[in-house]
Amino acid sequence: MIALLTDFGTKDYFVAEMKAVIYSVNPKARIVDITHEIPPQDVYTGAFVLWRSYKWFPSGTIFVAVVDPGVGSARLPLLIRTRHYFFIGPDNGLLSLAAEEDAVERIYKITASLSHRSSTFHGRDVFAYAAALLSRGVAPNFLGEEIANFVRLERPSATIKDGLVYAKAIYIDRFGNIYTSITKDIIYKIAKINDELCIKFYDKEFRAKFLETYSAAPPGALVVLVNSEGFLEIAVNRGNASEELGLTAGADLVLYRC
């Protein structure tokens, strides 16, 4: 199985060309689209989505992730073999959260490519091609040379000091729900279900009830809850919290029990 994640969107033909290369090399490949709607050039969001989704795939899956603002530059094309998977993509941190969690075993600088390799579309000419060869049983050492290290991103984290939780907004889903870097174990150190929490960011402050589900609040109410990924989420029941609060990924947050 080959799983694809990109910021290419679906309006253009770029994803189709990647799949065409894969099927040309391995007509029996199984391709799954994780998403192609990562915001353009947003490496961190791409890394986060790959990190949260990879573990649900069967062992042996080959992940091809392409969010690559440095395409054609000196950044390396990577193939990372972990305990259960393979990760292919640019060396800009995109692969790091998922690969490190699954335990990195070998790292390769990919040298294989289509003969007409372009300088602007490595997703097709390098990454899809390498994934297709790998899916046919070609060993990683025939696709590139082993190297010692790769670019790593910092995992989301939060800290508690004097009853205040310092964190970041790390992801906005299509419903406008805001994932924070506050994990379940941290929030339960300062609050319990039905407590009212204060959220500060920029020069704004909001209050929200800490609940278990969206529907436990009336429509339009601001809530915080632990989501399916284990992160504290800020949401509006049947609304869009990101738009209503003016809060986007990357913002610093301070949260405390009111």
Automatic annotation (TrEMBL):
Gene3D superfamilies documented for this protein: Bacterial fluorinating enzyme like, S-adenosyl-l-methionine hydroxide adenosyltransferase, N-terminal
SUPFAM superfamilies documented for this protein: Bacterial fluorinating enzyme, C-terminal domain (SSF101852), Bacterial fluorinating enzyme, N-terminal domain (SSF102522)
PANTHER family: CHLORINASE MJ1651 (PTHR35092)
Keyword Membrane listed: no
Organism: Thermoproteus tenax (strain ATCC 35583 / DSM 2078 / JCM 9277 / NBRC 100435 / Kra 1)
Keyword S-adenosyl-L-methionine: yes
Domain of life: Archaea
All copies of domain S-adenosyl-l-methionine hydroxide adenosyltransferase N-terminal, residue ranges: 2-142
Domain S-adenosyl-l-methionine hydroxide adenosyltransferase C-terminal: residue ranges: 169-252
Family annotation (Pfam families): SAM_HAT_C, SAM_HAT_N
Sequence similarity: Belongs to the SAM hydrolase / SAM-dependent halogenase family.
Annotated InterPro entries: SAM_HAT_C, SAM_HAT_N, SAM_OH_AdoTrfase, SAM_OH_AdoTrfase_C_sf, SAM_OH_AdoTrfase_N_sf
Keyword terms: S-adenosyl-L-methionine
Protein name in the entry: S-adenosyl-l-methionine hydroxide adenosyltransferase
